[in-house]
Amino acid sequence: MARTAALTNYLELCTQLGVNPQQLLSEFGLSTPMLKSPELRIPMTVVAMLLEATAKASGCETFGLRMAESRQLSNFGAISLLLTHQPTLRDALNTIGQYRHLLNESLAMDITETDKIVIIREEIIVDPSTPKRQSIELAIGVLHRLCGALLGKSWRPLSVSFTHAAPKDLNVHRRVFGCNVEFNDQFNGIVCLVSDLNATNPTADPVMASYARSFFEAQPGANKGSTLNEVRQAIYLLLPMDRATIRQVAQSLGMNVRTLQRRLEESGVSFSELHEQVRQDLLLRYMENPRYSLGQVAGLLGYSSPSSFTRWFTAQFGMAPATWRRQRLNNDE
Fold this sequence. Notes:
Layout: E1 2-3, H1 10-16, H2 21-27, H3 32-35, E2 41-42, H4 44-58, H5 63-69, H6 80-84, H7 89-98, H8 100-103, E3 107-113, E4 117-124, H9 133-151, E5 159-161, H10 171-177, E6 180-182, E7 189-193, H11 194-198, H12 206-217, H13 227-238, H14 246-252, H15 257-266, H16 271-287, H17 294-300, H18 306-317, H19 321-332
Parallel strand pairs: 5-6
Antiparallel strand pairs: 1-2, 3-4, 4-7, 5-7
InterPro entries: AraC-type_N, Homeodomain-like_sf, HTH_AraC
Organism: Pseudomonas laurylsulfatiphila
GO cellular component, one term: cytosol
């Protein structure tokens, strides 16, 4: 579920592009008054499908990114005051991770660091059949705007990456991000320097941060995230990096393996079942992109060798992955 704040400026952009928003909204069970209630929750699948339909109706291939272009920190709602007064960008991103279930429980984020470089990865967790080009560009665009709001002119990411193909016109991407933008990449996210994460936020006020956190944690459900959803998101992010073991996932969620297993048992599912579900979700993305070799697909899905991937795939689909891909691509022509 996502807050209706995710659709901030949707109506204005539709008007600019000459599209009737009421007609599009009604197709997905939404209305203009609903968008004016920022705390209302909407299934993320509906948001993703609405954005794709609007991009098609308007002929604007960068609709989601253009929505992100004018976002302000205040569009995050009640949590914006807490984010504004975090001492560093790292603290702000950790805060988003802590309260993600109140912002958008379908949004997954992971921060991977080396000595000098950081990759901030984001994913939208919806049914694999749901197109999400617009929603992921909206999410990455909003993340970029958040970083800029906290760091000001010093915010200069090294690059931005998307797993989908490039649009015909790159002008909007260049204008929004101001850096190299990679398409058909292995992740969705932003690459920056470690120093950016640790840079001091000049507007941070510790007293206001403490007040904002106390206020925010008093809100209903502030500290109640779904373990099932959190584990699924962690696997989704860690699997392409070959780190989606139960130990790694438990560590990323701040608990031990036994606690994680017990909570999953209470939800009626095992870690291996979730792992397999996520693997199948990601499979379609990688197999339908001809830029990924089958060896790369095997690695991204956590297989140590292409042969083990081929055996698993054949057992699941009744044919070798090369045959499946050939048939799929021929049908799409």
